[in-house]
């Protein structure tokens, strides 16, 4: 009669199944079956190296940029002698008792600069006298701007193709008597020392006022 039993043997650190039985001739047979493996343990070494998501260094993952930063614009400084050219245009305020002149301040080069305040304006008057324009913020006719608006003096940036302006005005009579006519103004931009002769259509050197620089 055959007898068969199952057992387990711990062999070399591994669980091994052992099967024994009797053969027809009375000898004993032993069959050893190795325990099934569960897969090799990971060594932590990635295969294929440098793949995305495996911890390898990737381009664009926070490394230092090699691009050149964009240059910053140079700060705009106050206009100085030689940077501004002045010319004049006549203004029509619709009042025959007043004359108006628009002074235009343009850059002489490619650099921008800023102006603030009142230009100095003088003109010839009979008797070899010069009349100095009084500074004022207010006007009965022209205001500071062609749209007749008034604002306090502000810092105005003069850019190539974007000049600044100031309004000059005067009365055409003095106590009922006609005022003389002057065709040349001597204009000094704010905070400068260089005076420029500016030709204009007609300025009467009576009650002459100048308004602040505006855009």
UniProtKB/TrEMBL annotation:
Positions with biased composition (Gly residues): 46-65
Signal peptide: 1-17
Pfam families with a match to the protein in the record: DUF4232
Highest taxon, organism lineage: Bacteria
Species whose genome carries this gene: Nocardia terrae
Protein name per UniProt: DUF4232 domain-containing protein
Stretches that traverse the bilayer: none
Domain DUF4232: from-to ranges: 79-201
UniProt keyword Electron transport, yes or no: no
Skewed-composition ranges (Low complexity): 33-45, 66-75
Record-linked PROSITE patterns: PROKAR_LIPOPROTEIN (PS51257)
Keyword rRNA-binding: no
Protein keywords: Signal
InterPro entries named among the record's database cross-references: DUF4232
Location of the region described as Disordered in the Swiss-Prot/TrEMBL record: 33-77
């Amino acid at each position: 009669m055959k007898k068969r039993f199952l057992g387990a043997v711990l062999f070399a650190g591994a669980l091994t199944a052992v099967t024994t039985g009797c053969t027809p001739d009375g000898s004993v047979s032993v069959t050893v079956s190795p325990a099934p493996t569960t897969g090799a343990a990971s060594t932590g070494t990635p295969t294929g190296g440098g793949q995305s998501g495996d911890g390898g260094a990737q381009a664009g993952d926070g490394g230092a940029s090699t691009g050149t930063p964009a240059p910053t614009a140079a700060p705009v400084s106050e206009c100085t002698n030689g940077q501004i050219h002045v010319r004049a245009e006549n203004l029509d305020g619709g009042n025959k008792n007043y004359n108006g002149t628009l002074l235009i301040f343009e850059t002489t080069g490619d650099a921008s600069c800023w102006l603030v305040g009142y230009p100095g304006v003088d003109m010839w008057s009979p008797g070899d006298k010069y009349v100095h324009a009084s500074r004022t913020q207010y006007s009965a006719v022209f205001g500071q701007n062609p749209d007749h608006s008034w604002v306090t003096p502000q810092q105005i940036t003069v850019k190539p193709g974007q000049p600044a302006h100031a309004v000059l005005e005067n009365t055409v009579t003095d106590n009922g008597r006609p005022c003389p006519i002057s065709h040349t103004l001597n204009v000094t931009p704010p905070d400068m020392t260089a005076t420029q002769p500016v030709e204009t259509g007609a300025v009467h050197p009576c009650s002459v006022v100048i308004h602040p620089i505006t855009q």
